[in-house]
Please model this.
Amino acid sequence: MFDFAPDESGLTFNTTVKVNHPKHGKSEFTAEFLLVDQDEYDELAREGDSAIVERVLVGWSGVRDADKQPLPFSSGVRTAMTKRAYLRTAIIRAYVAGYTGARLGN
Model:
C-alpha cells in the first residue's frame, strides 16, 4: 500500500553525495535535502544550478574544512560550494537520484 500526502512541505531526506575533486579525487558526504515539488524545481532550474543547490541543500554531515575539522552546515559555505562546478553538479546529481531513484546521464 502506498500512502500519498498531497502536501509534503518541509519533507527532507538524506543521501550520499559522491564528489570527484579535480585534484584530490573521489570522496563523499551525506547531504540533507528539502524535497520540492516539480513546479518549484522547474522554476529553480530556469534560474540555474546554483539556485537549485541554494534551495534544496539544507544540511550535511561528513564535510571537513582545510584543517580536517568537521565543517558545520551554513548558508555561507553552501553558497561557496555552488561556485565549484564539480561540487554543484555532484550535489544536484545526488538530489535527483535521491528523489527519483534514478541516476542522471553524462
Notes: The mean pLDDT is 92. Helices lie at 38-47, 49-56, 75-82, 85-100. Strands lie at 12-21, 25-34, 57-61. DSSP finds four helices and three strands in the chain.
